[in-house]
Amino acid sequence: MTKMSGRTTWLLTGGAGYIGSHVLHAMDRSGHKCVVLDDLSTGVAERIPVGTPLVVGSVLDTALVESTIREHDVRGIVHLAGRKSAPDSVRHPIFYYNENVGGMISLLDAAIRADVRRVVLSSSAAVYGTTDVSPVSEDADCRPENPYGESKLNCEKILAHASTAHDIGYISLRYFNVAGAATAQLADRGGDNLIPRVFAALQQNVPPKVFGDDWPTSDGTCVRDYVHALDLAAAHVEAVDLLEQRFTRRTYNVGRGDGSTVFEVLDTIKTITGCDFEPTVVARRPGDPAEVVADVTRIEAELGWRAKFDLSEMVASAWAGWPRTSIRDKSAV
């Protein structure tokens, strides 16, 4: 797709987060003007490029969102802010609905008031739940198995209804499992994703946990489609470029179209890190589907986007950015 001039200013909610900062840097390199709104609850201000304005605050603050849009003459929004842990959402469903669905409503309210009509939504493969087919296409039935997935599906529906009522062009990007890092500064420090969870366990010299080995998969562990944060960020740039060129309403899977079991990921981590360990298998977590792998036919055909990085490259880049103090390389944990 032809790169646009970048004259449109884009608001990135959650732009200081792990995924948000990768998107921000990719857009900055592509010549897009950006402003970031982030409450810094999980985001890191130092991730933001010099010269990019940062507004510290919550997307739930509709007045702040609207004033930010008007002050910076924002004409498009990439909405990344929200909560993303499926297991945590089972424990705290009201919090997740308030943060994710409430945040979507607040954002759209501000956008409509300020006449913003372009939105890229950070959605999730969690909207699918356990699917009847693999890989799963965007047209598949959505049957989320946890409040997080339900909240993201509700965000998609709210955006679609607002689009019809207010002529908003939008692209919803359904992320699969994001991993890897462009630089150490942008690396994932969260405790929810598999790869950083294993790294944290290695750092603490304890066995990593595997949540169930009795799933209906090749080795009994869950299957996920892992996509590099750099690839995901590139997909956002393509989505932004498309919305700058023309009005559209589309939903795209963002994955590699290839699944890996938990044990396969752990084997890759052993190879990359040189750490020898045996995981501890514990009970399944509520709300986890057995297998979710992306059908990426649509995004390849319509946006010309395809993932470039494989699982080994994701793990290697994540490991390069991980503080390894006290990790006993090449020893049993």
Automatic annotation (TrEMBL):
Checking InterPro entries in the record gives:
Epimerase_deHydtase, NAD(P)-bd_dom_sf, UDP_G4E
NCBIfam families from the UniProt entry: galE
The signal sequence is: none
Residue ranges constituting the NAD-dependent epimerase/dehydratase domain according to the UniProt record: 10-255
Designated name of the protein: UDP-glucose 4-epimerase
In terms of Pfam families, this protein maps to: Epimerase
* Reactions it catalyzes: UDP-alpha-D-glucose = UDP-alpha-D-galactose
Q: What is its EC number?
A: 5.1.3.2
- Superkingdom classification of source: Bacteria
This protein's pathway: Carbohydrate metabolism; galactose metabolism
Query: Which protein family is named in the record?
Result: Belongs to the NAD(P)-dependent epimerase/dehydratase family.
Entries under SUPFAM superfamilies matching the protein: NAD(P)-binding Rossmann-fold domains
What are the required cofactors? NAD(+)
Task: Keywords in alphabetical order, please.
Answer: Carbohydrate metabolism, Isomerase, NAD
